[in-house]
Amino acid sequence: MSKVEIFEVGPRDGLQNEKRLIPAAEKIALVDLLSQAGFRRIEVTSFVPPKWVPQMADAAEVMAGIARQPGIRYAVLTPNLRGYEAARAAGADEVAIFASASEGFSRANLNATIAESLARLAPVAEAARADGIPLRGYVSVVTDCPFDGKVAPASVARVAASLRDMGCYEVSLGDTIGQARPEAIDAMLAAVLEELPPENLAGHYHDTAGRALENIDASLARGLRVFDAAVGGLGGCPYAPGAAGNVATEKLAAHLALGGHDTGLDMAVIEKAAAMARGMRGGA
Ligand code: HMG
Ligand code: MG
User: Fold this and answer.
1) Catalytic residue selected from 53, 185, 237, 247
2) Which residues are 171's β-sheet partners?
3) For ligand 1, what atom is nearest to the CA of residue 100?
């Protein structure tokens, strides 16, 4: 059986888009349950301005409240140096920075051009290197942008290479609005793989159009072995109109098992966490 890792992003990418302000205690309970499931990495929250994403305003409280388990890296998203410093103070084991492959989404999500956003991230990368904190990178809208339409694979490759050059040990490729077709994912990966080997890449596919699993299969064929998912299919992005949930962890884990891939996850715990997540969303 080949090993495939699921990187759980539900508490961050999943919950950030929920309208109801979810109490920190509920978020902590979800992370604590996920910590029993066998993940090696869990993205817990993000240190972003509350006026951009109100749901993540309790990031420090959530980080302080979780019961950390050995062998799990608790990761957070940071948009700038201020966010990074708050993440470090909260004891994040890993931080992620994020950039867009299209100018339209960069403007909407980061209030900056791609070049400006990368310049803003450079000091975060330098600080993480100095502190010895692992740095992950995301590229958003790797095939389809809600503002600019189709995204050129070369743009994705360029931004992914910039994140690698800044020191990201892994770059996660985001189909932010879940509209990618497997052929587009394949063409995008062909370009990105000219710059980075598959072991430094992850697939981050939202399931809006129901094609995330096909896109993951296309990525497995290209050698990728890490995929981001959100338990209960939570998710979306407040600055990406039309973005629905991330691919559901339980659906992906079952699909991978059928394909002969070992995720090392405890499916009974995953199912419990999925039910909890759906309840938080109000759709249990
Ligand atoms: P800006 O408004 O241009 O920044 O936003 P600013 O520096 O002018 O700051 C605005 C205000 O926020 C100021 O306060 C700052 O002090 C404060 P004011 O003077 O107005 O009272 N501030 C902060 N507060 C708390 N924490 C901070 C912080 N920084 C500044 N870290 C910025 C620029 C990049 C900050 C903003 O655009 C931003 O945070 N964008 C991120 C939005 C976001 O979180 N989106 C969702 C995550 S990305 C995603 O989901 C995609 C992904 O899943 C992959 C995929 O699916 O593609 C990763
Ligand atoms: Mg996302």
Assistant:
1) 237
2) 137, 201
3) 57
Rounded to two decimals, what is the model's pTM?
0.97
For residue 49 and ligand 1, the question of a CB distance below 6 A is answered with yes
Q: Within 13 A of 225's CA, how many CA atoms are on the CB side?
A: 13
Which uninterrupted H or E stretch holds 94?
A: strand 94-100
- The question of whether 237 is a catalytic residue gets the answer yes
**Residue 278 near residue 235, CB atoms below 8 Å:** no
Tokens 């992005």 belong to which residue?
Answer: 237
How far does the centroid of ligand 2 lie from the alpha carbon of residue 202, in Å?
A: 12
Query: Helix, strand or coil for residue 250?
Result: helix
| 217-226 average pLDDT score | 98
Phi and psi at residue 112, to the nearest 5°: -160, 160
Distance 255 CA to ligand 1 centre (A): 35
How many CA within 13 A on the CB side of residue 101? Answer: 31
The vertex-146 CA angle with 183 and 77, nearest 5°, equals: 90
| Six token digits for residue 147 | 């503002």
Four-point Cα dihedral 255, 259, 263, 268, nearest 10? 50
Q: Which of 247, 260, 228 is nearest to 3 (CA)?
A: 260
Q: Which two tokens stand for residue 143?
A: 């095939």
Does ligand 1 lie within 6 Å of residue 53's CB atom? yes
Tell me the H-state helices in 142-248: 153-166, 182-192, 212-221
The pair of structure tokens assigned to 261 is 């891939």
Chain segment 137-152, per-residue pLDDT in tens: 999 999 999 999 999 9
Assembly ipTM: 0.98
